[in-house]
Amino acid sequence: MTADTLAGALADDGRRRVFAAIVLGAAGTAQIAERTDLPARAVHTAIRRLSDAGLVTGPDGALAADEVSLRAAARERRPADDAGPADDPVLRTFLRGDVLVGLPAQRGRRRVLLAHIAERSFESGTRYPERVVDEALKPWCAAGGSDHATLRRYLIDEQLLTREHGIYQRP
Description:
Radius of gyration: 22 Å
Oligomer: single chain
């Protein structure tokens, strides 16, 4: 579940009321309808949508909030630092969240973007096999702005990663 999915699932007042009733211990449709003053049909629809979003688990009569999914969604989006990527025009142009939408043609801009990716993906001084480097870079390429092999090559060309015998390291 993403933070956007969470926000969308709880955007409706009825779903929020149903979710609150479940969190506060209402386990079945009848209890939820009684506590929320919503018709049973609206409660069923809300439960289905909350379940689809990953907020609620269990069969009717044993409903509970999915705490694992909630924690994961909370960790997904962290508050931006004062000088976060949104403040840098290069990052704002070429990134959407943590997904690369393109590579700058100018070397200076490309280096700013690659430095950001290297800092966010790799710990300084830690040694990584190529497979781990590829797996760390693939999520950046989800939008098709580049591919992980190209990113890996640029990171090495710019000396943001070093490679020796198939082992990579951020200096």
